[in-house]
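Request: Give me one sample?
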Amino acid sequence: MALFKPKMRIGKMIDITPEMLDSVGIRALLLDIDNTMTTHNNPLPAEGVQEWIDRMKSLGYKLIVVSNNNGRRVRLFSQLVGLEFEGSAKKPLPVGFRRACKRLGVTPKQAAVVGDQIFTDIMGGNLLGAYTVMTEVYEPESRAFFKFKRACERFIMKFWRD
């Protein structure tokens, strides 16, 4: 079950503080988009996200978007918030995360994968050997596939011990 368990759970991405990151040696953040920085398929960041990104960058943290979404969606959102990106990342496979670390010049141990889904973000980050941070969703998805996946996640979470 350790493969599916994040190192940290948090409300929203913007609740991550420099103190939290520094305490575990994190220098780079690999960020999901949908339900991590905004609602699913929303072209605009959620309230406070742009300010948080700007602050983290000003403090020297390296940030990059890593998403399974298609290139256009990822490119437009990333450009809007001023971040580099890895689209079509094939999460949970670590390949997209590895490319992101290489682009940022960090090792997986210096990176945190931040996202809302166990079977993509958390599992992929754990396979990579990165620190993993699971956020709460902004808005539950309505499609049957996501509802099924969220039900499976809730089942797995019952076995977590903090």
Notes: The longest strand covers residues 62-66. DSSP finds six helices and six strands in the chain. Residues 35 and 138 are 5 Å apart (CA to CA). The mean pLDDT is 91.
